[in-house]
Amino acid sequence: MSIGVRDAGTLFRWFEKAKKYFEPFKPELKNQIINYRSKKSEINLLINVPDSVRRKLAKIEVPAYQNFRITEMIDGVSFNQLGNLWFLEGGKWKLDASKLPASEVYLVRLEGQVSESALQGLVRIQPSSNRDQTEEEDKYWLNSMLKNAELLKRIWQELRVEDVNVGVKVSIEKCFSIAIPAQLVKRLTEIKKWIEVGRGKDREEVMRQWSRLRRLSYEGASEKDAVDAIDSLTTGEMFTKYISVDQPYRIGEVRRSSIFKGIFPESMLVDAFTILNLRNPTAIGYLVFKKKKYSDEIRKTFE
Q1: Which is nearest to 44 in space by CA: 15, 21, 64?
Q2: Using CA atoms, how far apart are residues 192 and 216, in angstroms rounded to an integer?
Q3: Nearest-10 Cα torsion for 19, 20, 25, 26
Q4: pLDDT tens readout for residues 93-111
Q5: What is the full DSSP assignment across 265-289?
Q6: Average pLDDT for the chain
Q7: Strand order in 59-63's β-sheet?
Q8: What pLDDT does residue 174 have?
């Protein structure tokens, strides 16, 4: 195996070692599933334990690795679960082969956590900072892939990485600044300054800022109504109406950024999830923000 694949993390090195302990049973890897978001992994291994091997090897022992554990064993003929035949003792998973039914073929399931370094070595995610702009829409390029896919095919019959997240920061500040009445923007800006000044100890500056604020009149929505409207327009539920994503991606959590530019949120944070496997090791597409329709909705709200 190349150094590049080894750098994907100790997960692969552990499996190589664990597989050696199963070698008397002709192990066949059925599949491995990794959840990128939760960092959980599941490995399904098919083993053969004929009577001749069972008489020769009474016990099967596999060294325990970090928090990986053997969670299930299934009879390959009847597909019945075989109960808690495996037990952890002295840093090893152990099985009394004499207690196995005479099916000879069994599916062993292993589950555990994958390290962050292993995930970084396995998956490459291109930051989606570049975008194509028109008057109607902003497009954010999504690109993720399995690293060294050809080499990974030599190790795994099936490898599936779920919930690969390409996070997108969708800029929205300009949508608000062009759609909300300028006089209201000025008043909200002065209120923000007054609050900031009020946190200090210069009472004269507080009074001057208050005086500037009182001189700004606005016939329209109250400041509280305006702030409530901004909050409403930047909920995940509302904003999702104005974004779409190409397959093989799907939209996950949508939330407002905590960073403000002036009085408006700078951006919305959108999770775009996909699945990578050895048949489709690369996922590309666009996340589209319908910014004109969103600006029109803001303008309509403040009319």
Answers
A1: 15
A2: 13
A3: 70
A4: 888 777 777 777 888 888 8
A5: E-EEEEEEEEEEESSS-EEEEEEEE
A6: 79
A7: 59-63, 92-96, 86-89
A8: 92
Whether residue 257 contacts residue 268, with contact meaning beta carbons closer than 8 Å, is answered with: yes
Tokens of 101: 């039914």
- Full set of structural domains in the chain with CATH: 3-116 (2.60.40), 127-175+227-302 (no CATH), 182-219 (no CATH)
Radius of gyration of the chain, Cα coordinates, nearest whole angstrom: 29
Asked if residues 54 and 106 have their Cβ atoms less than 8 Å apart, the reply is no
Task: Copy the structure tokens of residue 16.
Answer: 């190589």
Dihedrals phi, psi of 15, to nearest 5 degrees = -65, -40
**Phi/psi at 46 (5° precision):** -100, 125
Name the nearest CA neighbour of 37 among 179, 241, 250. Answer: 250
| Separation between Cα atoms, residue 157 and residue 19, nearest integer Å | 14
The CA distance from 236 to 275, in Å, is 23
Amino acid identity at 109 = R
Q: How confident is the model at residue 197 (pLDDT cuts 50, 70, 90)?
A: very low
Segment 29-64, tens digit of pLDDT: 768 899 999 999 888 888 887 777 666 666 777 777
Distance CA 289, CA 140 (A): 8
Name the more confident of 9 and 235.
235
| Beta strand extents in the chain (DSSP E only) | 28-35, 40-48, 59-63, 69-75, 86-89, 92-96, 105-113, 123-126, 131-133, 138-146, 159-171, 243-245, 250-256, 260-261, 264-265, 267-277, 282-289
Provide the pairing of β-strand 92-96 with 86-89: antiparallel
Three-state DSSP class for 74?
A: strand
**Global pTM value:** 0.76
Chain center to CA of 229? 30
* Residue 76 phi, psi (nearest 5): -70, -10
